[in-house]
Specification:
With about 90 residues, the protein is mainly alpha-helical. The chain contains 4 helices and no strands. The longest helix is centred in the N-terminal third of the chain and has 30 residues, at about 5-30. It is globular, with a radius of gyration of 15 Å.
Amino acid sequence: MKVSEVDDVNSSLAYSRILFYLIGFMFLLLVLSCGPLLPVWMFINALQLIAHVPLIRTNLPGNFNFFILDYLNIIRLHTTSLNVWL
């Protein structure tokens, strides 16, 4: 990959991570404010599907691997700041 393509993938990965945290925070606010639980369970089911995508034998684009590994680290709570602190 060229340097510009790597930078594009890294920047889109950072934007998707921010969006993922924002969605998780919004659902946490729903739970804490005693809102409806259906969207929370839908979010948890979506996280389970994302976690199991690597087990499905399909042809996926090459860049998808970077995104799925990043999402799996978030789902498994393997954040770099937490790991450094521990």
